[in-house]
Specification:
Blueprint (H helix, E strand, L loop, with lengths): L17 E2 L8 H4 L3 H11 L6 E2 H7 L9 H6 L8 H12 L4 H12 L9 H4 L13 E5 L2 E4 L33 H10 L5 E4 L9 H14 L6 E6 L1 H4 L10 H13 L3 E7 L9 H11 L4 E8 L7 H13 L3 E7 L6 H4 L3 H12 L10 E6 L3 E11 L2 E11 L8 E5 L21 H7 L3 H7 L1
Parallel strand pairs: 4-5, 5-6, 6-7, 7-8, 8-9, 9-10
Antiparallel strand pairs: 1-2, 3-4, 10-11, 11-12, 12-13
Helix pairs in contact: 2-5, 5-6, 8-9, 9-11, 13-15
Length: 455
Amino acid sequence: MTLQESVWSETESPRIQSYTLTNFRNLPQIQKLSEEQQFEMEVVANVLPFKANNYVIEQLIDWNNIPNDPIFVLTFPQKEMLLPPHYEQMASALKSGADKKAIQELANEIRLQLNPHPAGQLELNVPTLKDGTKLYGMQHKYNETCLFFPSQSQTCHAYCTFCFRWPQFVGMDEMKFAMNEGEQLVQYLREHQEISDVLFTGGDPMIMKAKMFRTYIDTLLEADLPNLKTIRIGTKALAYWPYKFLTDDDADETLATFEEVTNKGLHLAFMAHFNHHKELSTGAVKAAIKRVRETGSEIRTQSPLLAHINDDADMWAEMWRQQVQLGCIPYYMFVVRDTGAQHYFGIPLVKAHEIFRNAYKQVSGLGRTVKGPSMSATPGKVLVDGVATINGKKIIVLKFLQGRNPDWVSKSFFAEFDESAIWLDDLKPAFEEKFFFEDELEQKYSGARKLEKSS
């Protein structure tokens, strides 16, 4: 079925059915797997969050291609997602019949070893009002943009196994970002006129019922903030539950809220997460994209580059082409963050750039809006810009796309060539003792990189 031939009908209006650690063995597709495979999933799902739904299971996963199907790996736990010592610890505990409390305590011990808040999120990004109130449901890392975590959006229609926000979902409240009060968000925006963009994130803001989402939006719109130009929504809903915008009982109200934003003269940027072109294959997702765009919203697409899921240049090129044809704007290819199962999903930076370049050269200029591969690291968003040879020395070229210090933006710097490096902290400067930003980062942010490494 081609892109044009795949259609959706309003008679296709399922209710969402979620599958988690408690009931995934009830699925007929899972029951066909061996008991060993099912136990491996159980072990991993006791540490890392796991949630799938009927749309993902019935329309996106090819159950004849298990365990290699990319959407299966994207949503169902795999043994290798835990490091061997962690896997053995949890497997032994489950086999011994340990009680629920003991299992939870062991899971939390393991989780704390997985760098739950990378890039200084907890230590450096939490903003403070002028009266001293810390806003733990927000992050403000770059001048122009602040992130807002509504407390009602701390889950998703399904969970991505790679997700760097996994601490939001595992029941460790001290690791969560969440916020109830839209009024405090408005107060912070008034106090920080440099902010032009508010990014609703989570979890997934589109898990909220439309009435709750509208209360936050109305609070922002009624404040009539002159500095607010863009509202962004970071969401996987189009890929994981397109019926949110089609046949859910609040679909029309959700879309009407989008229109309210655009009619107010603000830009609504719908930041859609698509990790594989299979997620663009159904009639439902195409119809949902059309409805969202009809509200005046722009859909920008992003994904990390993931081993076992999308580490293929041809796949990325095809995904970008389909996105452009559907009216979406390719925006970012990310590098997997240094948290959770990075060891499983991570790809060496040199290889990541090679995949990006080989995909980029296959698409027209309309697809070349995409930036990457980009690391959201402690100092900022760092682009892997390629490999070069200077005075006979092979190096990796890097560039800031965003920085904690705006003066770093668009500055290039150079690292020793290292085929195995998968993150910024794995790299060494090519021509100097330190990267140009390190002293300032150390001075201003109290040794953030050391804090990050020791967490």
